[in-house]
Amino acid sequence: MAGHNKWSKVKHIKAKEDAKKGKIFTKAVKDIMTAVRDGGPNPETNAALRLAIERAKAVSMPQDNIKRAIDKASGNLPGVKYEEITYEGYGPGGVAIMVECLTDNKNRTVAEVRHAFNKMGGSLGTSGSVAWMFDKKGVISVERSDKDDEIMEAALEAGASDILEFDEVLVIETEPADFNNVLQAIEKTGAKILESSVGLVANNETDVSDETAEKVEKLIDMLEENDDVQNVYHNMK
C-alpha cells in the first residue's frame, strides 16, 4: 500500500503540474493570437508578436503550437472560419466586464460565456451596455531598472501618450496606431518587457469590497479558462 500511496501522490503532483503548464500554454497562445489580430502574422514587422513568440518559447511551447496559434488568428486554418466577437456584461457589485472572443461556433461561445456570468452572480448585457466605460489603448509593462529614464525618454519620443510609475513596473500607454513604434523603441533600450498588447482600458473604475472582488476574480478566471475567450477586461478598482 505504501507504494500505491506514493504513486497516487506522484500522479496528483503530476496532474497539478500538467494543469499549471496547460494554463501557461493557454495564456501564451492567447498572447500570440491577440498580437496577430492587432498587428498581423509577421513577427519581423509585428514587435508584439515577436515578443509573444519569445515568451512562448521561454515556457517550452512546441513550435507547432505557436504556428497553429498564428494560423488560427490569421484565418489560415483550412476548413475552419473564425469570427471575432465581443460580449459585454456586469459582474458582482456592478463591475463592467468586456469579453473578447475568437470562435468557430458563436452559439456555443455565447452559451458558455452567459453560463459563466450567471454562475458567478453576474449578467450578460447587450451590445454597448458597458463598452462606453472603456478606451482602446496600447499598454506596455516594463520592469523597472537603472534604465528607467532612457526607457521613458524613448517611449515619449516614439509617441507614448502616458507613463505610469509603480514600485516595480513602468506602465506605458499609447494610442493604438502608435503602439508598434513605441514597443520597438522600448525594445531597443534592452528593457525587460513583461506584457505588451493593444486592449481596453477602463475610463471609469468601480470600487468594491474584498469579498466582491474575490467573486469578480472567480468570474474572470472562469471566462479565461474558455478556449474561445481571448481577453477579459474589467473596471474593478
The first-level CATH class name of the largest domain = Alpha Beta
- Helix coverage percent: 40-55%
List low-pLDDT spans.
6-15
Instruction: Please provide the count of β strands.
Output: 8
Strand coverage percent: 15-25%
Notes on the protein architecture:
Helix 5 runs antiparallel to helix 6. With 237 residues, this protein is of the alpha+beta class. Strand 1 (83-90) and strand 2 (96-103) form a beta hairpin. It has helices at 2-39, 47-58, 63-74, 106-119, 148-158, 179-188, 210-224; strands at 83-90, 96-103, 123-124, 134-143, 162-165, 169-174, 193-202, 229-234. A four-stranded antiparallel beta sheet has the order 3-1-2-8. The protein has a four-stranded antiparallel beta sheet with strand order 5-6-4-7. The chain has three domains: 2-74, Integrase, N-terminal zinc-binding domain (Arc Repressor Mutant, subunit A, Orthogonal Bundle); 83-132 and 204-234, YebC, transcriptional regulation domain (Alpha-Beta Plaits), CATH 3.30.70; 135-201, YebC, transcriptional regulation domain (Alpha-Beta Plaits, 2-Layer Sandwich). 47% of the residues lie in helices and 23% in strands. It has seven helices and eight strands, in the order H-H-H-E-E-H-E-E-H-E-E-H-E-H-E.
Describe the structure using short key phrases.
globular, four-stranded antiparallel beta sheet, Alpha-Beta Plaits, alpha+beta, 8 strands, 237 residues, Arc Repressor Mutant, subunit A, single chain, 7 helices, 3 domains, 47% helix, 23% strand
